[in-house]
């Protein structure tokens, strides 16, 4: 309800200041500019226009910075908005709302991507720099996948900014594509340490929530197949299964939305 009210208010701004027909006194939103808001470090909510810094080829940039201008700073006769660059030192959250009212929400989290940090994918100097960069990056504006008592986020690893030699360049390009295709899906409650989503971690989460646990056992979630996903594994078998799930399209996202989302509704308040 709050999101709908916010969208309605922002649409008024859009119609009054961001006319789609260009004229001498109108401003037209660019493709990477969205109506939205930020929540600063003092928990102050400020509405305005959000300019995404990331893209389909560089989604990790959205985790480090965003450009923003408050609606109070916008002048109807402006042809170019003066955006302020903000990062995880300035913000707790930012939200961009598309023309259909769909929100993309990014919240500041603390998490060390050890999987990408210990992986030397990319090879050579580039691979080493990539490992160091991911181990050193501990705060991110991660995209929210599921919101509630238990939050779920999509988190991309960070690529190496350097490559030496044609072979190193090719390996770095391959490593970057891997980062785009296979982000980490992580979750945790407000006071919990964030961890990566996998079948075992979800099973542990819902162990005391009889409603969700029973639905999992009966196969009532499309993303979870008890005969396969409920099979006990240990050692290498467990590691392989978790990695297969991670790179298997939207499986972990679907499991998070269906199972953790339901857990939030059924038992999350009692966590």
Mean pLDDT: 84
Q: Specify the structural class.
A: alpha+beta
Radius of gyration: 21 Å
The major sheet is characterized as: 10 strands, antiparallel
Count of domain modules: 3
Give the number of helices.
9
Strand line-up in the sheet with most strands: 4-3-2-1-5-6-7-8-9-10
Taken as a percent bin, the fraction of beta residues is: 15-25%
Helix-strand string: HEEEEEEHHEEHEEHHHHH
- What's the count of strands? 10
Shape: globular
Portion of residues within helices: 25-40%
Unreliable residue runs: 1-5, 7-13, 15-25
Distance between the termini: 25 Å
What's the helix and strand layout?
Layout: H1 2-17, E1 33-40, E2 45-52, E3 65-70, E4 84-87, E5 91-97, E6 103-110, H2 114-118, H3 124-136, E7 139-146, E8 150-155, H4 165-181, E9 184-189, E10 195-196, H5 199-205, H6 210-217, H7 226-229, H8 235-246, H9 251-266
Antiparallel strand pairs: 1-2, 1-5, 2-3, 3-4, 5-6, 6-7, 7-8, 8-9, 9-10
Summarize the structure in short:
This protein has 271 residues and is an alpha+beta fold.
Could you explain how this protein is built, in words?
It is built from 9 helices and 10 strands. The chain is α+β, with helices and mostly antiparallel strands and 271 residues long. The chain folds into 3 domains: 2-101, no CATH class; 111-196, no CATH class; 204-271, no CATH class. Strands 4-3-2-1-5-6-7-8-9-10 form a 10-stranded antiparallel β-sheet. A hairpin with a 5-residue loop joins strand 9 and strand 10. Helix 3 (124-136) runs parallel beside helix 4. The longest helix is centred in the middle third of the chain and has 17 residues, at 165-181. The model is unreliable at 1-5, 7-13 and 15-25 (pLDDT under 50).
